[in-house]
Structures are given as structure tokens and as C-alpha cells.
Specification:
Layout: H1 2-12, H2 21-31, E1 35-40, H3 43-51, E2 57-59, H4 61-67, H5 78-91, E3 96-99, H6 107-120, E4 124-128, H7 147-164, E5 169-174, H8 184-196, E6 201-204, H9 211-224, E7 230-233, H10 249-255, E8 257-262, H11 265-284, H12 286-296, H13 304-307, H14 310-320, H15 324-329, H16 375-378, H17 400-408, H18 413-427, H19 435-458
Helix pairs in contact: 3-5, 5-6, 6-7, 8-9, 11-12, 18-19
């Protein structure tokens, strides 16, 4: 029975289980000229990073503290950060490198920190050599512990890694360059010593965007440890755009910095957007919401139900909870027949089109006289389809009926224009759509279907040109497999 339960649990997973993300991270470091990512602070941010194609993600300590209303000055505890790490790791399948601060104490505390982080499922952590209370490497006042004490902590971390999971990644960060009494020479000395202790990557926290220290540190490390990959903080504290000759990721990769991360990327993007939106809400009240809705039309983040994968969990409800199907049918609200997943990888609604005998499958919602079939067919789900040259608007011109339908419902104009944009994208090299393009196409069709259905159900503004027999126009949404040829 226990084996059966375990098998059922595995089938319930919404994405394939990655058995060892540390191993995946190591493989990426070997395969890629450099690996880059942006810092996140919660499961949603990690999911968005994964869905847009990020190969790994960085769980930023400053971002986690900021999200809780604190600065990165040692306020969060090991328990708090590992809890966040566990939730983030359970939400994505890509490798996560997490901020473990200074190990939250001495060498013995570091042992437990590594143990707890291994349990979370992250690929690895970085540990710094600061003295408690630690702080962000770009906040003045930081100090570092003695080299012997730091080496004891790194050896403890490495031994714990080897005992629990040899693929778990340990990154040693030295803050000696910008600390009280620090220097580049001391940072190099410590970086080499930490590498000798068995860590997997070394990171020197720099004080600005200048090239010289980064180049000097990388060259010095290569002299003694030519095969050791380095980590680089493309820090959100620096003004890279204002530098006359800022580093590119490729340049850093060529220097040996194989893991590059922008620590507070998601936090800056989110706070900028939220500040502007909230400011507009204070000023313009309900109109701010209207503008936000219009701005997000067709964007993968348009629906919070989509981002939360409601359709997936409703399918599980239908499978395992008696009466779910009937409850969904007899109640108002979003359901799986109305949703398309943001990653384009789950079932959802996809409107198709037929006007007369024209085989133009996707320009408008399906027009057919028969709407009395099994109600379940009205709610049919559509698996992700392969989008190709002939699977969007088609190559044929619109018929008079299509033009009439569009003219009868002006609010569909912007949707039709977006579909035309998608068609043009498909017909340009390198032909086809990426995942985001597939989703935008599906969202357009969904909205068109809803507009037509609402118009017909409401009895006002029925589509069609003058003199057309509107009574024969019944719109229904069919899965692609049901569309007549």
C-alpha cells in the first residue's frame, strides 16, 4: 500500500521531479560558457523566472529581508530563510542557489545550516566570511572573521555536503576586499584558501562596477586554481548603466566567472512596478485599475488564475473529489475551460474559427448552427497545440462575413490586430512562436470567443453585416480536434 501511495504521489506532481538539482547545476556550469540569473525572493518570482526560460535562479538574502520589511543586516534567522527556500524549491524544477549568510553562527551552526538547506531541495548555498551581525556586502561597516575561523566554517560545510549530498553546491564568498582593513590582496589570499578547503565556487564581493578588481581577482585565482569556477555578483547596488565600459556577461564568463547573478533583480522590478501602480491608484482611483487591465491584456501575467495554475488543480479536484464537476458547472467563476496556462503547457480554452467553407481555423470564434451537443463539449479543454505557419490566421484573406463579424463588434479590433501581429511573427524567420507567443495567441482567441458569446447570449449587437441572417450564427468554442475540416 505504501508503494502504491508513493506512486500516486509521483503522478500528482505537476512537473517532472528533478532528483538532484545540485547535479543539474554542476552540469550547467560545465555545459554553458557562463550561467546567469536574477535574484528572486518568493515562489512566484521563481516560477516566472522558470517560465520565461531561466536555467537557474538565485534566492537573494537581501530580497528576502526586504520582502519582510527589513534591511539585509542579519535580522532574518536560519529558520525563516530555510522556510522560504523550501517553498521556492518546491515551486520550480530549475536549480536554486540560496543565500545562507554567514552560516548563522560558528562552524557548528554552519553544519546545521547546510543540513537544513539540503532538506529544502535547493541546489546549493553561498556562505560568507563576515563577522556577526552580517550585512549586505555593500552596506558600510562590515567586518570579516579571522582566516582560521572562516576556514573552519568552510571545512565544516564541505564535510557536511560530502556526507549528505556530494552534489550540493557550496560557494564561498569573501567580503575581505571592502571590509574594515580589507584589500584585494587579502581577498585573493582568502579565495585561494577557501578553494583549498574544498568549496565548489569562490566569490569575491566587490565594492563597485570597476573592471580592474574583478579582472585582477579572476587572474590571481586562475594562477593557482585554473579549473575552479568563480561566482560574480552583478550587483543591484551598482550603476552599471552609468559606467563608461560596463562588463558584459560574456566578458565575465571569459574571465572565469561562470555563475553570474543580479542579486535584487526581481525586487527592483517588482517594487518599481508596484510603486508606479499604487501611485496611479492614489491619484486616479478606479481608472488606474482600468489602465492596468488594458496594459496586461495578452500578457502571460494577465490572469492571476493562470499564474496560480487553477486549471491544473481543478483537474485534480475532478479526478479525486466527488461532485466537483457538477459544482463547477452549477456555480459562477473561472474554471478550467476558461483558462490557458501561462507556460502554454496545460489544458485551457482555445477558440477557433469557421466562416462558411473557408478553412481558416483561427481568425475568429467558431461559427456553427449546432449548439445542442453534450454540455461537456461546451467546456472542452484544449491541449497545447503546435503553432506553425498555417495554424494562426491562415494565408487566405478575410471573407465578407469575417469583415462583417468584426465590424459588428468593435471591441474585437485590438484582439484581431494582435493576432495579425502574431501571424506576421510566424511568417518571419525563424518561423514559429516561442512559449510566450503561443500564450498570447491563445489569450487573444479566448477573449474573442468570450466577446462573441456574450454578444449572442445577451441578444444585443449580434455580429454580422447588413442583410445577413443573424439567426444562423451561433458561436461555440470547440477543441481543435472537434473542428470540422
Amino acid at each position: 500500500m505504501r508503494d502504491l501511495c508513493r506512486a500516486a504521489s509521483r503522478r500528482l506532481r505537476r512537473r517532472p521531479i528533478v532528483e538532484n538539482t545540485g547535479r543539474v547545476f554542476r552540469q550547467l556550469l560545465q555545459a554553458e560558457p557562463y550561467l546567469f540569473t536574477g535574484g528572486v525572493y518568493d515562489p512566484l518570482g521563481a516560477q516566472l523566472a522558470e517560465r520565461v526560460g531561466m536555467k537557474s535562479v538565485y534566492l537573494s538574502g537581501y530580497s528576502m529581508a526586504l520582502a519582510q520589511g527589513w534591511p539585509d543586516m542579519g535580522f532574518l534567522t536560519q529558520t525563516e530563510v530555510t522556510r522560504i527556500a523550501s517553498m521556492v524549491a518546491s515551486a520550480v524544477s530549475i536549480p536554486i542557489i540560496a543565500d545562507a549568510d554567514d552560516g548563522y553562527g560558528n562552524a557548528l551552526s554552519t553544519i546545521r545550516t547546510v543540513q537544513e538547506y539540503v532538506k529544502t531541495g535547493v541546489a546549493g548555498i553561498h556562505l560568507e566570511d563576515q563577522r556577526f551581525p552580517k550585512r549586505c556586502g555593500h552596506i558600510a561597516g562590515k567586518t570579516v572573521v579571522g582566516l582560521d575561523e572562516a576556514l573552519g566554517k568552510y571545512r565544516a560545510a564541505v564535510d557536511t555536503r560530502d556526507r549528505l549530498d556530494p552534489d550540493f553546491v557550496i560557494i564561498a564568498r569573501t567580503d575581505a576586499y571592502g571590509a574594515v582593513g580589507g584589500s584585494l590582496e587579502e581577498a585573493i589570499r582568502r579565495g585561494r584558501a577557501y578553494a583549498d578547503a574544498g568549496v565548489d565556487l569562490v566569490w569575491c564581493e566587490l565594492s563597485n562596477a570597476s573592471r580592474e578588481p574583478a579582472i585582477a581577482f579572476a587572474r590571481a585565482m586562475r594562477e593557482t586554481h585554473p579549473d575552479l569556477p568563480l561566482a560574480f555578483n552583478y550587483s543591484s547596488s551598482f550603476r552599471w548603466h552609468a559606467d563608461r565600459n560596463p562588463f558584459t556577461f560574456k566578458e565575465l564568463g571569459d574571465l572565469g566567472y561562470k555563475f553570474i547573478f543580479i542579486t535584487l533583480f526581481a525586487a527592483h522590478a517588482a517594487t518599481y512596478a508596484m510603486w508606479n501602480a499604487m501611485e496611479e491608484l492614489v491619484r486616479d482611483q478606479e481608472q488606474a485599475q482600468w489602465r492596468l487591465e488594458k496594459t496586461k491584456v495578452g500578457h502571460p501575467t494577465e490572469s492571476h488564475h493562470v499564474m496560480a495554475r487553477v486549471a491544473h488543480f481543478q483537474e485534480l479536484e475532478k479526478r479525486y473529489i466527488p461532485g466537483t464537476e457538477e459544482r463547477i458547472k452549477s456555480s459562477h467563476g473561472f474554471d478550467d475551460a476558461r483558462l490557458v496556462h501561462a507556460d502554454g503547457d496545460r489544458a485551457g480554452l482555445s477558440a477557433t474559427v469557421h466562416t462558411g467553407g473557408l478553412r481558416d481555423r483561427n481568425a475568429l470564434p467558431v461559427v456553427t448552427r449546432d449548439a445542442s451537443d453534450d454540455p461537456a463539449r461546451e467546456r472542452a479543454q484544449v491541449a497545447r497545440r503546435r503553432v506553425g505557419d498555417d495554424d494562426l490566421l491562415g494565408r487566405g484573406t478575410r471573407t465578407a462575413k469575417q469583415r462583417g463579424l468584426r465590424a459588428g463588434i468593435p471591441e474585437t479590433d485590438h484582439l484581431m490586430n494582435r493576432l495579425l501581429d502574431v501571424k506576421e511573427q510566424v511568417e518571419r524567420p525563424p518561423f514559429g512562436l516561442d512559449e510566450a507567443g503561443i500564450h498570447r495567441d491563445q489569450v487573444c482567441r479566448t477573449e474573442l470567443a468570450e466577446v462573441f458569446q456574450n454578444r449572442l447570449n445577451g441578444g444585443a449587437g449580434l455580429p454580422g453585416g447588413r442583410g445577413e441572417d443573424r439567426s444562423q450564427l451561433v458561436v461555440r468554442v470547440l477543441p481543435h480536434s472537434d473542428v470540422p475540416e
